[in-house]
Amino acid sequence: MANSVKFLKFTNKEVASFYAASAIYRLFAYAIGEEKMVLGTATGQTPVLTYRELIRLARKSEIFTNYGEKYLILRQLDNYISPDATADNLPNYSYQIELENSIWKLPNCGAYIPKEYAEDPEEEADKYAQIIQDTNAEAKLVVQLLGIGDEDGHIAFNMPGDSFESTVHVVELNEETIRANANKFFGGDESKVPRKAITTGIGDILESDIIILEAFGKAKADIIWKSFFTEPSTEIPASALQISDENKVVLVILDEESASVVSEKEGEEVFDNPLDVFESIEYHIFCN
Ligand code: PGA
Predict the structure, then answer these.
(1) What is the pLDDT of residue 1?
(2) 43 Cβ inside 6 Å of ligand 1
């Protein structure tokens, strides 16, 4: 496994999310001394507490209020493609509402989201690929927040079998993802889940300087172990994070439940000390 993967285990998702938000906040505080920071925002339920905490921190210190416009670029990781959506009539996905009520309330940032109402999704994917390139070039630091699919280990909407070098592309959602998303966001009704999405590719994700993958709850325990402690394989998209460059940082932030299989099979020594990790992030920023 690459040395750059660090595992952190917290008592519960609230404490874990507090840590993740503090790490992002700290990274931003460092980045603004120099240049812009991209924060790649994951969709899904997992990061919601982190976004809320980030907003709380931002309000308390006004660092985002004062510097957000100049120094922060938010970039959403993926989006559904909805055949019936228009610019004035967007579907009310619960995750999108959560995002709007949380991370998008960070004041004055540049923000990019793949358009779910794009008439030509392939063209929209090309445009988004260009946005990723341009914003990466503008930013001193690219921080990508990720969740992970419970059953298949997808990251963003990259499905098993997708290349580790992929860039932004249009995907057909697989049955597992449709089922999981129906339960989480559509009241269990699979017919309401869009069948396609635009996603940032695994290759794009691996370009980030710092990747923070959050996974909470028992349902993620097995896939977390498989993703990081078995041979990397395109059959488990998250296992690509094992092969990120040594000079990048991958933080895997877990609660007791999601860490349970790793704890059982690999022992407690695989978990890093959260304060040491803060230090290594600082090292990364100042020495790379
Ligand atoms: P979740 O989704 O955060 O809602 O569990 C994760 C994902 O599908 O990437």
Answers:
(1) 39
(2) no
